[in-house]
Amino acid sequence: MYMILKLIQKLIATLNSDGTPKQVAAGIAIGTVFGLTPLINLHNLVIFAIVLFFKITLPAVMLGWFVSIPLGFALDPLFDRLGQQLLDVLTLNPFWTTVTNAPVIALANLNNSVVLGSLVVWLVAAFPLYLIFRWAVARYRETIYARIKRTKAFQAMKASKVYNFYRLFRPE
Amino acid sequence: MKKILRWKAIVPLTLILVLCGIAWWLYSDKLLERSIEQMGADLIGARVDLEEADLSLGEARVRLVGLAAANPNSPMRNLFEAREIIADFRVSPLWRKKVLIEQASIRGVRFGTERSESGELEDPSPESGRLLREISGWADRVRIPPLNLEGLNTVVDVEAVSLDSLTTVVQARSIVTVADSVRQGWEADLSKLNPAPLVDSARALVEQLNTANPLTLGITGVTELANSSRSVMSSLTSMTDRVSALDSTVRDGMGTLTRSVSGLADARFADYDYARRLLRLPSLDAPNLSASLFGDMAVARLKPLLYWVNQAERFLPPGLDPRRRAGPQRPRRAGVTVTFPDETSDPDFLLETGDADLEIGGEGAAAGAYAARITGLTTQPAVYGQPLVAMVERTGAAVGPTDVRVNLAIDHTGDVINDSGSAFLNGIDLPQFNIGGSGIQLDLGQGLSELSLSRTGDGIEGRWMWRSDAVSWTRGAESVEQGAEAQNVGQALGAFAEDFLWDTIASLENVEISVGFSGSATGPSLRIGSNVGQVVATSLRRELGERIQQAEQLVRARVDQLVDQYVGEAESKMAALDTEVAQVVGVRLTEVTDVRAELERAIRRILPAGQR
Q1: Which residue of A23, B167, B259, B358 is surrounded by the most CB atoms within 10 Å?
Q2: Does position B318 have pLDDT exceeding 80, yes or no?
Q3: Cα separation, B468 vs B472, whole angstroms
Q4: Does the pLDDT value for residue B485 go beyond 70?
């Protein structure tokens, strides 16, 4: 329960003030890979290691992940079709033969239509997603969050014991 | 660097890796167990259960205990059980997702053991389901002539043979219709071509050329004449081609119709057979009788054989083309996994050598120890480049002298499948079954079962023979044949027939049944032979030959009476059409060709070489 509260608090903090919109958008765009592509796969392990090693906003990554999970399920038929089309391209046969028989890369399941299709879609969509989220986070902070901050309810809550309780879980 | 790297992450990442290692240590055996059960189920199309799996990467060894694979054709029985399997594999190919087993030892193999619960899959793979349906479809389509002697005790009612049920009548009517449509077609085409005006104008030009004098015509007159000659000649050439094309089309159509008319004789023989079956007259042919008596048994035994022959193609596919299979089961869509064989690499799965000790217990003649060896079992034979070879031999008999030899060579290394196999099993328990849909049960006891088969491409050819010198017959038994459509004698065969059959065969001690099969691997045709069929045929001829012959004559006369009129109509229609075609199209073609030749001659005579 404590962990969940802390996570929610981190997400709110990230969206409202922690990091620049660029950092938050990059985190969300990277996080969508975990929701769009089937989770237990080698490429997700590699991306997870990158997220941990580089200073990418973890709550933003989590946000991107959670937001894209239903999207991943909904778009599975599209990923499947796209993956099958890519795997069926005759001129790409030598490429797939090399990739699917290469050490370690063979374990990445790139010869599965859903894995391949979703990964390709994510690779193509990652940068546009980054731009969209950057704009969205900046707009959110400028308009919605600024307006909420000014409301009496928010001011009252901030002065109340509830906010003190909330602060207990606020990340350093 | 410090700004973008999170060095503190090394600790949690290491922790995660350690956790992954612990999870692998705790669950790898379970994971392997589940994978083998799932892959096995996909492979055979029935449940595969494994009691325990023990994977040791350090020793490069896997140990499987209590493997039981259900029989897809009989889900309450196991196809085989193995007490223990120990396999030594190579570790480095695992990085390329390849399983290369150098040596596997299989202990305590038993076949056909009973299961406590059904081995039927709730959700079988579409491919294995398709194959089972295909083989079952073939079994349903195999026409086993019914053995029914009841017709002899009834008055032969030839009126039962109706006009519309005869193939000859249908074919003859169709010939008449097609002949009419062919005639209408070419008449319309010929009237569209309408060569008569062109022929007339060409004749007029020939006459003009024959009477013309170049000196009086002058240069202008000769040039005009040359131009009109060239134009008519070109039209004649085009018309000749079109009339020739029409002629050849009409003659092709006539050829097809002529073949159809010739086919009426075969159709008439088929109708004799049909009418005889309709009146339930028994055949006096030994092969037909053998098929009636043992057809169900043969089909029931060939079904699993064909299933496995075709499964071998599915799981040991020839060639290097990419292969598709369903993706792994997961909450997300499974998708399709495509395998791309690489001839420079290792196959995805390879068992280089496997040894098995088989033991058949009990007091039967088959009881004893057997040794089996298999080499080159791979999912990508073209990559491995060597055929699968398997053999089974008896190493020690518990009871009596017996001989067991099984050899199998599956060569899928090229684009064309080339399989061969033989099994010689002497002194084994042979099947017991009801014969000819009757309540007479034949127990073949112990004897010889010999199978040989070869497959090249999609074609299969083989022979399966059972021979016993100590058979026993039982009368009034319920059907023992699983899957066969055997029924009780009272319902299917009739008391008269059963009495006759029982009196004929009950004293036989030696029985030999042979089933030859050839044709497509998913639906071969059968040839069934047996000494029992010969004995029954001889007996039938002796007892009932005259009555059957009389009944057959009546049937033939009835068929002839019904079809003669239609056959005659079709033949006369065909003859008339042939004459008309020769007269009309042939004459038009000759006219056009002749006038073209005349025009050519006239042009040569009157016009200088440069103006032709």
Answers
A1: B358
A2: yes
A3: 10
A4: no
pLDDT band at B548 (very low <50, low <70, confident <90, very high): confident
Residue B360 pLDDT > 80, yes or no? no
Which residue on chain A is closest to B320 by alpha carbon?
Answer: A97
Say if residues B79 and B66 touch (Cβ distance below 8 Å): no
In DSSP notation, A37-50 reads S-SSSHHHHHHHHH
Interface of A with B (CB under 8 A): 38, 40, 49, 52-55, 72-73, 76-77, 79-80, 83-84, 87-88, 93, 96-98, 100-104, 106-107, 109, 111-115, 117
Q: Which of B96, B333, B341 sits opposite A102 (nearest CB)?
A: B96
- Spell out the residues 6+ positions from residue B182 whose beta carbon is closer than 8 angstroms to its own: B250, B253, B254, B257, B577
Q: Give the per-residue pLDDT at B326.
A: 85
The candidate with the shortest Cα–Cα distance to B466, out of B234, B587, B290, is: B290
List the Cα angle B16/B21/B22 in 5-degree steps: 95
DSSP secondary-structure letter at B237?
H
Could you tell me how far CA B500 lies from the centroid of its own chain? 37
pLDDT average, residue stretch B245-270: 84
Chain A residues inside the 8 Å CB shell of B340: 93, 96-97, 100-101, 111
How distant, in Å, are the alpha carbons of A144, B303, B305, B411 from that of B389? 74, 23, 18, 9
Chain A residues in contact with B332 (beta carbon < 8 A): 38, 72-73, 76, 114
pLDDT for the residue numbered A163: 60
Give the pLDDT confidence of A130-157 residue by residue, as tens digits: 999 999 988 888 887 777 777 777 777 6
**Interatomic CA distance for residues B218 and B234, integer angstroms:** 24
pTM: 0.64
Q: Give CA–CA dist B290/B532, Å, rounded.
A: 7
Residue B212 clears pLDDT 80, i.e. is over it? no
Local structure of B120: helix, strand or coil: coil
Compute chain B's Rg from CA coordinates: 38
ipTM over 0.85: no
With 60 as the cut, is the pLDDT of residue B413 above it?
Answer: yes
What residues of chain A lie within 8 A of the CB of B12, using their CB? 52
| Residue numbers in A near B5 (CB within 8 A) | 53-55
**How are beta strands B48-56 and B61-71 bridged, if at all?**
antiparallel
**Per residue, what are the HEC states of B439-466?**
CCEEECCEEEEEEEEEEECCEEEEEEEE
Alpha carbon B161 to its chain centroid, in Å, reads 33
What pLDDT score was predicted for residue A143? 84
Indicate the SS3 state at residue A171. coil
Q: Which of B537, B440, B541, B548 is nearest to B498 (CA)?
A: B440
Contacts of B558 (CB under 8 A, 6+ apart): B158, B159, B161, B275
With cut-offs at 50, 70 and 90, classify the pLDDT of residue B482: very low
Pairwise CA distance, residues B48 & B41, whole Å: 5
Q: Do A36 and A118 meet the contact criterion of CB atoms below 8 Å apart?
A: yes
By Cβ distance, the residue of B13, B98, B327 closest to A49 is B13
Mutate to test the interface with B, among A52, A54, A92 (most CBs of B within 10 A): A52
What average pLDDT score do residues B86-102 get? Answer: 93
**Interatomic CA distance for residues A25 and A171, integer angstroms:** 20
